[in-house]
Amino acid sequence: MGKYNLTALRVRQTVLQSQAAGKFSKLPDWVDVVRDIPPAQVLVRDRPQQHQLVRQRMNAPPGASRPQVIFEVQEKRTKPKKTSRMFQPVQIKYEEDQLRSEFFRDHPWELARPRILIESSGKDFEHFDWSRLQQPGKRLDGESVVQRQLWLLNNVPNISKSAAYDTARREFYRLRLQEDIERRVAAEEAEATGATFGPTRLEIGMELENKEYDLWKEWAKMEAAVLDQRAASFAGAPDAHAPAPAEKTEEEFIPAA
């Protein structure tokens, strides 16, 4: 039938005809299942539904007694897709994705901090109250800032994304500074009670840098000597690094009696 191959749709009919022709005596177990649940007969695929990003906001109009919850639809530009990509699944997007990329673009070193990867159900909002940034049982990280910013956008009336970002970032900086002070005080108390610590990461890095600088210095001296000898050989002058002849004293010029 043209370019369509309907062999898979007629597999039960083919098996029944083969049994009637005497090719085998017992039918397969899936014959009755295919009869009760036949394969789809529609040969045209529908395009996947285009989902739009819906954002929750709090709006407090002038004169209103209480703020209202509104849902905004972020309009997306529909780009023409290629024929080969027309029926691919639609990419799922969340508002946190944009907030997360913005934070880690401004704070790339937060990705270098060690993490604890624990599988969860994905319902952290049921266990944490993001009305404050620091949560019991959760380590402070960039995800805390993202969830705090999202909570501000969803619950504070007429707040902009930049204002929520500045608020969450200010709280994050204050807690990071508090952690650094607590860590420094704990180290000083441990040293006061007799604890000894090895070199810090900064000291180890400076030592490695000094070693590399000494190696580079020796290599630079050798390269400079090679270049000087090569320049002297081309110019025809005596070797600059050769030892100079010793000067004769007055006693050597006086003839012996």
Automatic annotation (TrEMBL):
Residues 234-257 are annotated as: Disordered. GO terms for cellular component: ribosome. Keywords: Mitochondrion, Ribonucleoprotein, Ribosomal protein. Its main location: mitochondrion. InterPro entries: Ribosomal_mS23_fun. It is found in: Mitochondrion. It comes from the Eukaryota. Pfam families: MRP-S25 (PF13741). Residues 234-246 have a biased composition (Low complexity). Component of the mitochondrial small ribosomal subunit. Belongs to the mitochondrion-specific ribosomal protein mS23 family. This is 37S ribosomal protein S25, mitochondrial. It comes from Aspergillus cavernicola. The lineage of its organism: Eukaryota, Fungi, Dikarya, Ascomycota, Pezizomycotina.
